[in-house]
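Q: Got a minute? One more chain.
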Amino acid sequence: MSTLELLDEHRCFGGTMRFYQHESREIGLPMKFSVFLPPAAEKKAVPAMLWLAGLTCNEQTFMFKAGAQRKAAELGIALVAPDTSPRNANVPGEADDWDFGVGAGFYLDATQLGWSKHYRMESWLISELLPLLGTELPIDLQRVGMSGHSMGGHGALTLALRHPGLFRSLSAFAPICSPSKCPWGTKAFRGYLGPNEHGWLPYDATALMLSKRTAPFPDGILIDQGTSDKFLETQLMPGLFEAACLSIRQPLALRRREGYDHGYFFIASFIDEHLKFHAERLTPA
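A: Always. Here it is, folded:
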């Protein structure tokens, strides 16, 4: 018997768009995620790109706004978009700020009192959701790529670097590249992980890259960043990650997109190129 509850389903570009909920043992609460299955999934297990969304978003945001399904159907790649935090955890203060708590789980396992019981996003994604996808859906777990936006870009980079070999390809849009050095990140890390800044570094993509001896993704990492993004200098800091990659000879295509901002019009403009990037690394020649 399936452990997934199908909440909604729609035919889409010859494939199927689905919205699910399941009782998460890691979170201790119901968690939601969305999946687009391309037409090829009706005959065989397909590769997938896991998309981690940004602050204030949920499991629906990417699927409704990015316009990724047409190209994913053509390439034969499934899309998976998890929610961005637990819901109804009833932690005091969890809904007080848009950049911390509900909708802002930062894709880590909290250690601080009050947060550590339910805010276990890393364990949910890695130890529970991924195995569930392979068991319940026609998704090939040997061919999974990771991408995301902003806070989700931070999640994509850090989880891929923290779990070597689990993800075959890696990209991001406007990621928070060094959260231990920016206001969004320091607020989240202090709240979830405590005041010891050394304990933040395992969730900082730049610090993680600097800790590697060899390139973890020899086939390259792709990042798109808008030059008119109002968060570029204060929150995102892609230059720090770029320098870290250069120091260990990690191939990185950091494309600075002139005039583009932080939103989903930017993502929709280049998502097809990211899907092609993942397809080249996830599908056999």
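A: Residues 171 and 274 are 7 Å apart (CA to CA).
Q: Perfect, thanks.
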